[in-house]
Amino acid sequence: MGWSFADRVYWVTGAFGALGAATVTRLADAGAHVIASSRHVDDKRFADFPRVVPLAVDVADDDSVRAAFAHIEERFDRLDGLVVSTNVAAFGDFLDLTDDDWQRVIDAKLLGSVRPIRAALPRFIEQARGAIVAISGRGGIAPPPNHFPGSSVNAALDLLVQGLGRRYGPHGVRVNAVAPGPIRSPRFDAMATAQVEDEPTRLTALDGPGTPEDVAAAVAYLLSDDARFVTGTRLYVDGGGPPYA
């Protein structure tokens, strides 16, 4: 199903990664203005989408995030939703991962989600409407043995979404998470390379892995008016999880 987002304004962080880019494209195709932010931007990536505004933002820097939000306010004087899709990879055996590996994931994905949400939330409260979607992951409830930092952050994001959804629902703000399972992307390829020998090779009940467009469709639903009574929850896009074998 397609939703119309005509003339709405959305901010997508991590917009030049596989999931973020698919989300930007999905929203722009549906008529939205999309601020596509990332630490490094490629002005040619969304050249066919005149409603997409690339914006260099470092979500590890609160000043950069707040400056980006101020730019959005000045240009559009409106924001209908926020998608936080930042991610970094830190794969390996638990005993081999360093404090720096853990901190890099925490700062980029957990705090890199907190900062844009914190910047945009007062606007949503003021206008008594707004939708926030965080990209977490199935590892938040079923952590693979080679992905403990990312899985731990996914669990933290899911908990944050639950709390924010309850706290700010009375203000008209909906907060949800999309938790992808195996999705075909450079990150998936990195995980496959780091796979330990006793990890199952078939990861989904349905024929997988999925695609970034599968995730973008779930994000679009949670941003849409059809999800007006959905908040504080996570939507799995994981092909049904590991099959029973």
UniProtKB/TrEMBL annotation:
Pfam families linked to this entry: adh_short_C2
User: Superkingdom, according to UniProt?
Assistant: Bacteria
Do you know which Gene3D superfamilies this protein is assigned to?
NAD(P)-binding Rossmann-like Domain
Q: Does the keyword Chloroplast apply?
A: no
| Gene Ontology terms, MF aspect | oxidoreductase activity
Q: Which residues form the Ketoreductase domain?
A: 8-181
Q: Which InterPro entries match?
A: KR_dom (IPR057326), NAD(P)-bd_dom_sf (IPR036291), SDR_DHRS6-like (IPR051122), SDR_fam (IPR002347)
Per UniProt, the keywords (alphabetical) are:
Oxidoreductase
Under PANTHER family, the record lists: DIHYDROANTICAPSIN 7-DEHYDROGENASE
Q: Which family does it belong to?
A: Belongs to the short-chain dehydrogenases/reductases (SDR) family.
Q: What is this protein called?
A: Short chain dehydrogenase
